[in-house]
Specification:
This protein has a domain of about 130 residues: Alpha Horseshoe (Serine Threonine Protein Phosphatase 5, Tetratricopeptide repeat), CATH 1.25.40.10. It is mainly alpha-helical. Helix content is about 80%, strand content about 0%. About 15% of the residues have low confidence. The protein has a two-stranded antiparallel ribbon with strand order 1-2. The chain contains ten helices and two strands; from the N terminus they run αββααααααααα.
Length: about 325
């Protein structure tokens, strides 16, 4: 009986012991499970908050990038619009500039035409003056020839009277005067005609070489004998119508006229230098003096055109600087 009782007690003890062990394990497992759940919750809260923060930061960055993109797009559109406006404005300005240039070209053509007409009129006047001078020179030559012929006749008559020999025509008659015989003027025979004849050409000085003649003209010009110098320069030009000597001569002919205040005639001589001797060293000076001549004639617009032509064709010449000063003074 005891034995059975002991066995029962032992079995109960074992059962109780087993029951206690199971509860402890369950408690441990429950504790561990709660710990794991707590860690999971902690991990969830930490990770999710970090992810949410990262997402929030990414979203803010994306929004900032979007804003920057929108601003950049707006700037690009504004720049494109401004570029379009600038192109249209440039086209309008270019059209206006072309119109202005065409107007100035037309005005300059009209001015050049007026200048050419004026030069033609001046050339016509100079032609008339030259013809008048030629006629005057011819008259002077004829008068000189007549005087020479009269002097020749007087010389022949004096020589005949001194020799006492008188040759008369058949219709004439001798006349005795104080012991010497004198023939009537109408009774001079062919013998007298055969005597050496002195004409105007023999009374003049021997021909002068062109260089000496040019030197003489320059001395007259330097002595301010402008009228005489002009005539001498004309003789030089007649002997040297081409080349550098002609350019020099024409230039100083213009200078003689300029010094005498004959600005319109000086313009023509300067124009001959400009037109026929463009590469000569006197050409820039001729252009400058031509512009000054137009200023003297109160034609300021034409003077401006001449000065601008000088600046365009001879920009490095000393005359160009003077022309620029004249232009600035006329502004």
């Amino acid at each position: 009986m005891k034995r059975i009782r002991n066995l029962v007690v032992a079995g109960c003890s074992v059962f109780l012991l087993c029951q206690c062990a199971t509860q402890d394990a369950v408690q441990n497992l429950s504790y561990q499970l709660r710990a794991v759940n707590q860690k999971v919750e902690d991990i969830k809260s930490t990770t999710v908050s970090k992810i949410q923060k990262r997402q929030a930061g990414s979203l803010s960055r994306i929004e900032a990038v979007q804003n920057d993109v929108l601003q950049l797009r707006g700037s690009l559109e504004e720049n494109a619009h401004q570029e379009t406006l600038f192109r249209e404005q440039s086209k309008e300005n270019l059209a206006a500039l072309q119109s202005t240039v065409e107007k100035y070209q037309a005005a300059n053509q009209q001015r050049f035409k007026l200048i050419e007409d004026r030069l033609d009129r001046l050339a016509f006047k100079v032609g008339k003056l030259s013809q008048a001078r030629i006629r005057e020179a011819e008259k002077r030559a004829q008068a000189a020839a007549r005087r020479a012929e009269e002097a020749r006749q007087r010389t022949v008559m004096a020589a005949t009277a001194a020799s006492g020999v008188v040759n008369i025509m058949p219709t004439g008659r001798k006349v005795k005067v104080t012991g010497r015989r004198k023939a009537a003027p109408a009774a001079v025979s062919s013998t007298a005609k055969n005597l050496p004849r002195k004409n105007a050409a023999s009374a003049t000085s021997p021909p002068v070489r062109g260089i000496d003649l040019f030197s003489r003209a320059m001395k007259q010009y330097q002595a301010k004998k402008y009228a005489d110098a002009y005539k001498t320069f004309e003789q030089v030009l007649a002997g040297h119508p081409k080349g550098d000597k002609a350019a020099e001569t024409l230039f100083f002919m213009g200078e003689c006229l300029f010094a005498q205040g004959e600005y319109d005639l000086a313009i023509l001589d300067y124009q001959k230098v400009i037109s026929n001797h463009a590469k000569n060293r006197r050409t820039p000076t001729a252009l400058l003096k031509q512009g000054i001549s137009f200023e003297k004639l109160t034609d300021r617009e034409t003077a401006k055109i001449i000065y601008k032509k000088l600046l365009a064709e001879y920009p490095k010449s000393p005359e160009a600087a003077t022309a620029r000063q004249h232009l600035n003074s006329m502004q």
